[in-house]
Design brief:
Blueprint lengths: L6 H59 L3 H37 L7 H13 L2 H26 L2 E4 L2 E4 L2 H6 L2 H10 L1 H8 L3
Antiparallel strand pairs: 1-2
Helix pairs in contact: 2-3, 3-4, 4-7, 6-7
Amino acid sequence: MDNTTNPNTSSEQNTTKENSGNEQKNNTNALEAKIKELEAERDKLKQSVTNASADASKWKKQYQDKLSDEEKAKEQQSEANAALQKELEDLRTERNIAKYTAALSASDIGMDAETATAVAQALNAGETEKVFEGIRSFIVSHDKALAEKALLNNPKLQSGSSTKTVTQEEFNAMGYREMVAFKNEHPDLYAVYTRKT
């Protein structure tokens, strides 16, 4: 076998290497050119987006500036209607509260003005728990006033030769016979003291 190198093979290899190197260089140059081209395209697109945003903003401002007087009048009318509606609702609320307050303050119920107003407001708002609380408070104060009035009308109880004022606590401490005597002599006060609250 011949160990000598073929000169043609060596030169072919050199040519192939050169061609391969040139081809790589050309590919690299082509890629760099393509990247620059894409970057330029990207910059154009960014500028287009910026221009489009500016145009949209300009058109929006022009549209708002060119709203017709009729549209502005409709908008003002709508706001005025909303204000009137709110005023009407407020007046209805005030009327209902005044009506409820008057009914609760009437002589047949006789609630004081402050309590009647608080109950009327709760009634109008649909807050039933506050309504019941106000009524309970009124009943307690009403019963207390009745007891005080009864004591003013019948303040003393005859006990032998001496007279004395009878309080709820003293009434509660009485024995059966004393209570019977008290009931016969002071039926109104007896009814107040025995009322369950």
